[in-house]
Amino acid sequence: VVSASDFPFARAKLGSFVQDAPQIGNQYLEDTLLQTYLKRYIPKQMLSEIEDDLTRFGNRVATEMYDLSLQCEKEQPYLEKYTGWGKQIDKLVTGPAWKRMHDISAEEGLIAISYERQYGEYSRLYGLVKNYLNCPSSGLYSCPLAMTDGAAKIIESLKDVSPWLMERTYPRLTSKDPVLFWTSGQWMTEKKGGSDVANGTETVAVEQTDGTYKLYGYKWFSSATDADITFTLARVVDKHGHTVQGTKGLSLFYLEVREEDGSLNNIDIVRLKNKLGTRQLPTAELLLDGSTAYKVSDEGRGVPAISNMLTLTRIHNSIAATSTMRRIVNLARDYSTRRTAFGNILKNYPLHIQTLSRMEVEARGALILCLENMRLLGKDDVTMATEDEQNLLRLLVPLSKLYSGKQALAVSTEGLESFGGQGYIEDTGLPAMLRDAQVLSIWEGTTNILSLDVLRAIEKSRGQVLFSLHKDIENRLKPISNPKLSSSVSKVITGYKDTLQFINDNANKQDVLQIAARDIAYSLCRIYTGALLIDHAASNLGSSLDVYTANRWCEKDLSLVSTNSSHGHYDSETRKSDFDLVFSS
Ligand code: UCC
Ligand code: FAD
Fold this sequence. Notes:
Helix content is 54%, strand content 12%. It contains 23 helices and 11 strands. It has helices at 8-11, 32-41, 44-62, 64-74, 96-107, 112-116, 123-134, 142-157, 163-168, 170-173, 197-200, 302-335, 350-381, 387-417, 431-437, 447-460, 464-477, 486-505, 510-515, 517-538, 544-554, 560-566, 572-583, and strands spanning 78-82, 88-93, 184-187, 204-207, 213-223, 229-236, 250-256, 267-272, 283-295, 340-341, 344-345. It is globular. Flavin-adenine dinucleotide is lined by residues 185-189, 193-196, 221-223, 275, 278, 283, 439, 442-443, 445-446, 448-449.
C-alpha cells in the first residue's frame, strides 16, 4: 500500500530536493593558460616567489573575498544629501564590505606591486595578474583601483613638471598600508560629451594669486566618488575672462576631494546615478563650485597628459572583461558537474560542453592578449621597451579593451543561460555579472571611439604601429613547423595581408577608413590574438589543448574588412542605404 509519506511533497511543502550551488576553487590554480604564460616569460626563481603569493591569493579571492563581493552588491552606497534639519551634508555612505575592499587592496599590494618594481620588468605583470584574480571578487572595487593605477602612472609621467606630487601623493597611491592608501577618481565626462571631451568640457579654471586654481563646472559621471584625489580637465580663464575652445583649451588638474577636516573641497554631490549595473560602485554627478585644484600639465595639453591614465584604465577594463569571462566559465563548468537533467548530469551532454568550450576559447583568446599588454607595459614602465614594443602597446591597448568588452557581454549572456532559470535569479549573484559587464564597452571609451583611436594610433605613427605588428606576427609564426597549426598560421598571415592591403588602399580615403574603423579594429584584434594563441601552442609549454584552442580561434573570419569590402559595405552607396534603413520608419 502506498502511503502519503512516500511522496516528497506530502512531508514538506517545499519538497526535499535542493540544488547544489556552483562553487569556485583556487582561481590561480584553475587557470592553466595563465600559469603556463607566466612560466614562459618570468625567470624561474622569480616565478617561484611570485607563484606562492598568487596561489595564496587565488584561494583568498575564491573564499573570503568572493563572499565580501556578494556583500558589496547587497550594501549599495547611498547619498545623505541633507540632515533631518535641512543642512546640506552630501554624505556618501558606503558599506563595510566596500571599505574592507579598500584595506585588502592595500595589504595585497594591488597597486603597490607594480610600482615597487621588486621584480623589474615583471613587476607589472605580477601586479596586474593579481588584479585579474581580484577583479571578479572585488565587488567593483576594481574600478577605483584602475583609476588609482592610472593616477600613479600620470604622476610618474609628470615627475619633472610637478615633482611635489611624487612626494605628496604617489607614496599614498602606491602604499600597502590601509591607513595611508589613497584612491583616485578620473573626472572627464560632462553633460555635453563623454566621448567628445574636447568639445564637451565646460568646466573652467580660475587662477588664484597663490598659483592654485578654482574650478567651476559640472561633472556628469564620476565613479568611486569616495576617492581621495582626482585628475580632471578644465579650461583656464585668461585675464580677459576668455577660454580657448576645443582640445587646445584643455589642461589637466589635480585636486583633493576633501579638506583636512573631512569636508568636501567645494564640491556638491548632486546625486548618485541610478545604474543598470555596477551598483556596488558610487557614481555621482558633481558640481564643482570653486574647488581648489592644481594645474599639472602644460596649458592646452590636458588630453595627451590624461591619456597616460586612459592607457592604464583601459588595460584594467580588459582585465575586468577577461576575468569576468573566466569566472563565469569556471562557475558554469562546476555547475555542469552538479546539475542533472533528463537523468544525466549536464557534463555528460556533449552539446552543453560544446557551449562551454566555445566560451572557454573566447576567455583564453582575451586572456593571452591581456597578458601580452601587461608584459609590454612592464617593459615600458622600466624603460626597457623597444620602439616596436612601444608601438605594439599603443595599438594593442584599445584593441584589447574594445574587443574584450564585447566578448565579456556575449560570454556572460551565454554563461547565465548555462544555469538555466537560476542564471536569471538575482539571489544567486549571477545576473549582476551580466549587468556589470554591460558597462565595459561604454566607459573608458565606447567601441566606436576606441576603433577611431586605433586609426589615430595608425595615422599618428604614419603606419609604424602596423609595421611593428607585422614584424611581431612574422617573428612568432615563421619558425612554426607543427603541421597541426599550419592552416591557422596561413589564415593569420592571409588575414593580416588582406587587412593591411585594405588600409593601404584606402589610406587617403578618410570616409572609408572611418566607416570601416570597427571592422579594422576587430580584424586586427582577431588576427593578433590568433597569432598569440598559435605561438603559445607551438612553444615548449604548449599542449594539444592549446593547439585545439588556437585552431578553434582561427576558424572564425579573421579579417572582417576583406569580407565586408568585397561586399561593398564601405562605399558611398552603402552609407546612404545604411542611413535610409535606419531613418526609413
Ligand atoms: O569612463 C571613465 C571611468 C570609468 C571608471 C573606470 C573603470 C576602469 C576599468 C575598471 C574595470 C572594472 S573615465 C572617462 C573615460 N573617457 C574616455 O575614455 C574618453 C573617450 N574619448 C576619447 O578617447 C577621445 O578619443 C578623446 C577624448 C581622447 C579625443 O580627444 P581629442 O582632443 O578630440 O583628440 P585628438 O585631437 O585626436 O587628440 C589630442 C591629443 C593628440 O596628441 P598631440 O596633440 O600630441 O597630437 C593625441 O595623439 O591627445 C593624444 N591622444 C592620445 N595619446 C588622444 N588619445 C590618445 C591615446 N589613447 N593615447 C595617447
Ligand atoms: P556619447 O559620446 O554621446 O556616445 C553615444 C554613442 O555615439 C556611442 O555609441 C558612441 O560610440 C557613438 N559615437 C560618438 N561619437 C562617435 C563618432 N565620432 N563616430 C562613431 N560613433 C560615435 N566618466 C568619467 O569621466 N569618469 C567616471 O568615473 C565615469 N564613470 C562612469 C560610470 C558608469 C557606470 C558609466 C555608464 C559611465 C561613466 N563615465 C565616467 C562616463 C563614460 O566614460 C561615458 O559615458 C562614455 O565615455 C561615453 O560618453 P557619452 O556618454 O557622452 O556618449
